[in-house]
Amino acid sequence: MDAENKNEVSEVGEAGAVSGGAETDGPKPRSVRVVLLALMIAMLLAMLDNMIIGTAMPTIVGELGGLEHLSWVVTAYTLATAASTPIWGKLGDLYGRKRVFMTSIVIFLIGSALSGMAQDMGQLIGFRAVQGLGAGGLMVGVMAIIGDLIPPRERGKYQGLMAGVMALAMIAGPLVGGSITDHWGWRWSFYINLPLGVVALLAVSAVLHLPKPSRDGRSARDIDYLGAALLTVGITAIVLVTTWGGTEYAWGSAVVMELIALGVASLVGFLFVQKRVAEPVIPLHIFRSRNFTLMSVIGFFTGFVMFGAVLFLPLYQQSVQGASATNSGLLLLPMLGAMLAVSMVAGRVTTGSGRYKAFPIVGSVLMIVGLFLLAQMDTGTSRVTSGVFMAVLGAGMGCLMQITMLVAQNSVEMKDMGVASSTTTLARTLGSSFGVAIMGALFNSRVQDVMAERAGALGSAVTERSAQLDAASLAKLPAAAREAYQYAVASGTHSAFLLGAVVSVVALVAAVFVKEVPLRGAGGSSVGDASGKASAEEMVRA
């Protein structure tokens, strides 16, 4: 444990050395708070961007044209973020978290500035990819730096704050994006990142000082470039399949089948390469830890459910309950508010007790119950009732969102903190892609079937191009067709949420098998261990 303790010692500005974080009681050094604020800003930038851009897209298309390429403005960002996530984590482990994190901020700001200056849709898509490349490093860097600064015993409450940032981004994003676009123009949807990013960059540069990682003779020549390329191709193919399948191309089309084959072949090749290189992008030995593997599974299904809910709940409330789309972020307030509150409580309880196994189990149960309740909504469900159902789901996700990262980081050695953080983040990202695709396909199919049953040829014609109608299109429908569509949307959300409840059972099974290994405390001490120490071997094997 001695070598590991040395790695946990992190210096923060002039406050001196922080041995894996300050004590549980008492105020944190001022410079630690400054760093944490900078990390929260960076996380906000990565999470807020897509939410802001969504509301600005009609204005962007009106000025730049290129409506047929509209989806690529979001897809390019998502692809670059997902593909770069594991690579950023590995670079942080090799070359030091601070340097790599600052590089990702700079790349994100360059992408933001270029996106704001784009003169056509092609340029905007390319610059959004640059922005997404930086965003992948922001998300991984935040979690890995917290892992360096704060010992697992205390880390829960700080990662709970990061969950709060995520909830804030989802609520405030559409509001901020609409306001900026209306008053300053769509280009400021990108330029607004610059002052915030510069503040984060300066704060990190001035007060964050982490020990340099031990290279042990490793150099840039040892980096697994082939593995990185194969993983990038594999992730890109997966995200494109889940993005295009059932929308741009039929699920059985040649394009989708070719992408699936390419993705599978690339990932199989990636696993083959990882076993044979000195510095693998994702060291396969981290999956020998039962807890780490289980947390990756739980994170995948949490992402699957969360982003599916974020997509379909506003659609249901706007189409069936008649809610306004203007403040769409506020429609999710019951779910996101419960997620934020429970996440922060879970973090503090974990910090106080050092125990965490109950949270994945309780969170999975609440997630299943919440999704089942949401699946019972129909055309007569009130907003109060649906709000209560959303709060149950949000409470479940609040138990899971940051505990998965905490336990995953506690299950590996300090030298693998970056790849552990990036792999867990990637699992959640891929889960969200699959969730949106599979739940979306089920929703669309159900809506089209019900419309054909209840409105005949008119119903089929209405949903022929898309099962999701905007407010303007819905208002133009005859009363009978509108009622049929509302019933169809309620039926579609029933099927989608019921599927979410079923797949969440896998997360519950995984949670049951989690082994509660004592969390390392400040200075490396672990909770529940009479000697105050836990061996690295115990933590890796758990």
TrEMBL record:
InterPro entries: EmrB-like, MFS, MFS_dom, MFS_trans_sf. Residues 35-519 form the Major facilitator superfamily (MFS) profile domain. It comes from Streptomyces phaeolivaceus. The chain crosses the membrane at residues 34-57, 69-88, 100-119, 125-146, 158-176, 188-211, 223-244, 250-273, 294-316, 328-346, 358-375, 387-407, 495-514. Pfam families: MFS_1. CDD domains: MFS_Azr1_MDR_like. Residues 1-27, 523-542 are annotated as: Disordered. Belongs to the major facilitator superfamily. TCR/Tet family. GO terms for molecular function: transmembrane transporter activity. PANTHER family: COMD, MAJOR FACILITATOR SUPERFAMILY. PROSITE patterns: MFS. This is MFS transporter. Gene3D superfamilies: MFS general substrate transporter like domains (1.20.1250.20), Multidrug resistance protein D (1.20.1720.10). The keyword Membrane applies. It is a multi-pass membrane protein. It comes from the Bacteria. Keywords: Cell membrane, Membrane, Transmembrane, Transmembrane helix, Transport. Residues 10-22 have a biased composition (Low complexity).
